Amino acid sequence: xxxxxxxxxxxxxxxxxxxxxxxxxxxxxxxxxxxxxxxxxxxxxxxxxxxxxxxxxxxxxxxxxxxxxxxxxxxxxxxxxxxxxxxxxxxxxxxxxxxxxxxxxxxxxxxxxxxxxxxxxxxxxxxxxxxxxxxxxxxxxxxxxxxxxxxxxxxxxxxxxxxxxxxxxxxxxxxxxxxxxxxxxxxxxxxxxxxxxxxxxxxxxxxxxxxxxxxxxxxxxxxxxxxxxxxxxxxxxxxxxxxxxxxxxxxxxxxxxxxxxxxxxxxxxxxxxxxxxxxxxxxxxxxxxxxxxxxxxxxxxxxxxxxxxxxxxxxxxxxxxxxxxxxxxxxxxxxxxxxxxxxxxxxxxxxxxxxxxxxxxxxxxxxxxxxxxxxxxxxxxxxxxxxxxxxxxxxxxxxxxxxxxxxxxxxxxxxxxxxxxxxxxxxxxxxxxxxxxxxxxxxxxxxxxxxxxxxxxxxxxxxxxxxxxxxxxxxxxxxxxxxxxxxxxxxxxxxxxxxxxxxxxxxxxxxxxxxxxxxxxxxxxxxxxxxxxxxxxxxxxxxxxxxxxxxxxxxxxxxxxxxxxxxxxxxxxxxxxxxxxxxxxxxxxxxxxxxxxxxxxxxxxxxxxxxxxxxxxxxxxxxxxxxxxxx
Amino acid sequence: xxxxxxxxxxxxxxxxxxxxxxxxxxxxxxxxxxxxxxxxxxxxxxxxxxxxxxxxxxxxxxxxxxxxxxxxxxxxxxxxxxxxxxxxxxxxxxxxxxxxxxxxxxxxxxxxxxxxxxxxxxxxxxxxxxxxxxxxxxxxxxxxxxxxxxxxxxxxxxxxxxxxxxxxxxxxxxxxxxxxxxxxxxxxxxxxxxxxxxxxxxxxxxxxxxxxxxxxxxxxxxxxxxxxxxxxxxxxxxxxxxxxxxxxxxxxxxxxxxxxxxxxxxxxxxxxxxxxxxxxxxxxxxxxxxxxxxxxxxxxxxxxxxxxxxxxxxxxxxxxxxxxxxxxxxxxxxxxxxxxxxxxxxxxxxxxxxxxxxxxxxxxxxxxxxxxxxxxxxxxxxxxxxxxxxxxxxxxxxxxxxxxxxxxxxxxxxxxxxxxxxxxxxxxx
Lengths: 631, 429
What we know:
The structure holds two protein chains of two kinds. Chain A is an alpha+beta fold. Helices cover 26% and strands 26% of the residues of chain A. Chain A contains seven helices and 33 strands. Chain A has a five-stranded mixed β-sheet with strand order 1-27-28-29-30, with no helix packed on it. In chain A, a hairpin with a 4-residue loop joins strand 12 and strand 13. Chain B is built from 21 helices and two strands. The longest helix of chain B is centred in the last third of the chain and has 36 residues, at 352-387. Chains A and B meet through helix 1, helix 3, helix 4 and helix 5 of A and helix 8, helix 12, helix 15, helix 16 and helix 17 of B.
């Protein structure tokens, strides 16, 4: 056989081997794609059958079907795997033959090269090489520099750290829990509740300042409800992660302030009833008359429920047993030294006791339209009281209180000036006071954990501003509101939401340079504060429209019209949103992107107060009565 | 005498190997009554210590043999057969691990992480080829590297890449070396191993993308010889440095070059330096050289500055940093049960604050590492540029000591020393 024949043979072998390898490669690639799509663990049919089996666990036929299908899918999967493996060996064989035949063909066709002439002067080549190297280095460094400047360090800006509220809040709550006397755990809902009741009754006799044990409570108690009330299940802190972020606030079973922990409008309580009727008493566990009028909302710590009432001459803090509606104690606040005898100007829809009390489990603090601030302990014993000055407020002071790490936080925006104060909750001394360049406001502050730092956020005209609750230092502010601001801010996932009627609803990204991410003016609340959770923002207007917005972009997801306007702030609990209209009808929706109305129970009397919650219970303050609703 | 020597060597080699065969699994797998075979969780499986020593011994033997074949015996065929053995043993049998290229990362990690102890095997795999390169040239690339071997075997019709392009592409290994050291030092990743294009072929198992990458490299390698070795291999940078000052190196001609030019286009990796006649350096050339030397510190500083500024995006390869940033920018992912990384973090008990703190520490490590990386690249690129300002006169065809991979192809082209040639030269003279 001469060289040409050998060349031909080796070339033909190379071509055949090449085609064979190419075909095997293509088949393997197709097989591989099929394999990716037929993962046994991600088989949709199998998953749906398993889901069916969960609902129908006794279905033997279904179990058999699942086993058969599972076996089939796994067989198919492992067969394909085997095929790929076999294909790999065939491919290697084909490539080896291809390589060998190509090398042999090359050796048969190698020709001696004609040397030719060569340029022995490489100066030009070197210069070209120098230029190329220089350009390449400049390009590499230039691209690196551009990429460096286009990259933003998300770890450095604390305002980007939106996910840290879960950890910071936990540690703060633990502090509060430790300081609670007599309570053995955060919930307070222990079987020791009857013992606490006895304690409470005793303290009524012990307490000075003329507390009276008041009769006249109208009790509608079901035996089973009463028994259940003392042993309410604790909320498992690990539940509802998928439902809301409120679990991260971890106040246990407490409802310590206006709109719940931190004033965000979120409650982590479960099994909230959706049906009751105030007129007939269905699911009304008890109903208690409130001696003095006030629009503030109930606040709960353990088995104690606190609220205030006041008129032009008298102010009281009331403590109820939230299990049976009995008054545990009443504390008058009529002896606070003031620098004026002037009576504050208030309107009927604000009254003298609009701000909600706050408690940290040790102290209960209240503020009134007179500017009186008082602090008592959980037994109703006065700790301190002072007057901040008569607020120049043409409707009446209504900003509620907050407590943060032993500091009582007071938003005190009046017609004369705006300011925010931090008082030592134990002594009433002013720890800090920050003047604000703001107009009067009736909104209440909120606390938000932004980037690992807790910020006190206030809404007023024109600005929404944040302060360090420990020092009063202003952290940021942005002008976006106008008019007489009633709604408090909302907060979720690093974004602050501020709104006011005839102004805007704005989503604000806080930071050293805060920016408005989006704003709308389509449906705006006058009094009710917005509540935000899981990308959904809810507002209720004073003309009776309930709206669900997409919190990311302000898109209206759904809206609902009710007969009465809404003054009470909406609350989120148990994956539901609760809107109480002024007629006393509660509109309950599923917390979802699509509208699902769960119920419209009626209280039987009008209300503008925001609901409070405990597990399985709602507490509503009507104009005259306090209600405990449960099943 | 010679036979006695060979017999003694063979006897002791056999003894060594047979001793190894007595080794047993310290923790044998359970025996099942059915024919169930326990699948291996690791690929490749951990190796017995004695077998690891065997690997080192085999590497040493291959390096010695390659040196002998390249420098003494001058046998291209011998080098080729040895590289086939390397491909089978270190490639397919040992599944490409451990390899000297990846050992850079092991050495780096042990230097920067006191909790990591490098195995003696990894250390020797790193050191031995460098020692041989220092004296014999890049004999490791010639026949001891499985990655080089597989590329060597698929070379079909190598084309010559223009020299400037060759030089520019030759900058990439420096970048790859710097990045691999940076990522290993910060305990981020072993990127050399992760992006080894041929490991999937050796193990016959890899992600689809890596298999395509490996196949593409081989396809490319048919026409652009040894593309990974020339334009990516980070170990090649170190071998280049060592080999540049090697005392004994493969030469094209066994004695004196006769300038027949037959070897001019024989090197598939364009590593032959041709004879050059240049005029004596003039003032302009000297100035250029001096300027490039003086600019070196500036390049180091500029490179270091750019490297430090690049710490943000460079650090995103780190899993802790990327998770922290992900949870910061998309906190709603906490509610996604399908996101394994996020769910693993949530169930770990670690707080977000801790995660962010850890990520910030790692990012600061990248800041300082970026300075070093950028400075190194500035220095390396500057030196490469400076080298190009130096004109060297050369009268023979010589392999470029730094770039020559000691494959020996050029030796077959050189007629000097071949029996017929010497006879013909005698007759001509």
